[in-house]
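Lab notebook: predicted structure, single chain.

Context: the supervisor wants predicted structures on file for every construct in the current expression panel, including those that have not yet been purified. This is the next one on the list. No modifications to the sequence; it matches the entry in the shared construct table.
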Amino acid sequence: MPASVPPLPSPPPAAVVDAPPEHTVSGPGHRLRLTLLMAGACLPILGAVLIAPVLPQMHAHFADVPGVDALVPVALTIPALSLALLAPFAGVLVDRIGRKRLLVVSTVLYAILGTAPLWLDSLGAIVASRALVGVAEAAIMTCSTTLIGDYYSGRQRDRYLAMQTMCASISATAFFVLGGAAGSAGWRAPFWAYAVSLLLAPAMAAFLPRPRPADQADEPATSAAEPMAKRPFPWRPLAGTCALTLFGAVLFYTVQVEMAFLLDDMGVSNTGVIGLATAGSSAAVVIGAVVFAKAGRSPQAWLPTAFGLCALGFAVIWLAPDPVVLTAGAVINCLGSGIMLPSLLTLAMSKLHYVDRGRGTGLWTGSFFLGQFICPLVVLALTSTVGTPANALGVLALAGAVATAALALAARRCRRTTTRVRTRPRPETATCPDIRAG
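Prediction complete. Output recorded below exactly as produced.
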C-alpha cells in the first residue's frame, strides 16, 4: 500500500505570486499512483475516438432505422456533450462524497455502460448508453485531475498536469488505431475495449490513498482570520479561466476537425498522406506539453506565447499556397495548443483550495469539453459567413491575435504587481488583480 503524501508546510503569501514551492513526491507507490491517474484520464479519450473507424459499418447495419444519418454520428459525439454538461456536477459530488470513492464507482460504471452496445440491438438504446458513458467520463476525468492536484504540489504538479495532456494526445492516436484494427471483426468489436476499466477499478481502490486537507502545501493565499469552511467559492477568478479555456478548446480542436477537409480542398485525397499530416500535428501537441513541463515558467507567462502560436498557425493555414505549408501551419498551431492546455489547467488549479478543488476542476473540465463540442459548429457558422473553411480559420487567427495581446498586457500587469508584492508583501495583495478578474 503506497504511503500517503506527507503533510507539507504552508508557503508565505508572496509565494503564491511566484512559482509554488517544490516538494517532490517519489517512490514505487508514487509511480503506481501516477500510472493509475494517467490511465484514468485517458478513458474519456477512449470514448471519444475508439468507434470512429466503425461508424460506416454501424450506419450500414442500422440503414433501415429512421434518422440513422444523424444518430450514428451522435453516437460518437454525445459522450463529449454529456461530459461537458455534467462535469461541473461531478465536481460537486467529488467535494461532497470524496474523490477516490467516486472514481472507483465511475470506472466500474464506465465498463458496464461502455460495453452495452455489444448486446443492444436498438440504435436509440446505443445512443442512450453512449450518453451515460459521458456521465461516467465526467466523473472519471474530474476525479483523476482533482487527485493530481491533491497528491502533488508546485512544479511537480504542473509537470504531471502537462503529462496528462501528453498522455491524452498519444492515447488518442493509439485508440484510433485500435478501433480500426478491432473493427475488422465487426462494428461491435471495439466496444470490448471499455472492459479494460474493470482492471483499473480494483487497482485504484487498493493503491490510491485517500487525500487529506493537511496534505496540501500550496493552497491559494487567504486571510488568516478566514475559516476554510466559510470561505466562498472563487467564482470570479475561475470564471475568467474557464471562459479562456472554452475559447482555447475551440482553437485546439479546429485543426483536428478541419485538417482533412482543408487538405481535400487542396486536392489531397490520399488517406495515408492525410493521416501522416494529422499525426504530425498531433505530435506537436505532445512536444508543446513537454516544453511547458520542462521550462518551469508560470502559466501566466506561457499563455501569451501559447495563444500567439495558435493564432500564427491559423494565419499560416489561411494563407497556405500548398499542402506542405498548410501542414506546417497546423504543426505551429498544435505546438501552441500543447503549451496552452496545461497552462490553463495549472492556472485553474492555482486558484483552488482542497475543499473546492473538485468543483473547480469540474467547471474547468466542462468548459474544455464544451469547447470541443461546439468547435465544429463555430467553424460551420464562420464558413457560412466568410465563404470557405480557410477564411474561417483566418477569422480565428484574428481572434487569437486579440486574445494574445490581451494576455500579454495582463501578464505585464501581473509582473508589476509581483514586484510591488515583493517589496510590500500583504496577504490581500498576494494574487495579481488581473488574474483575479480572469
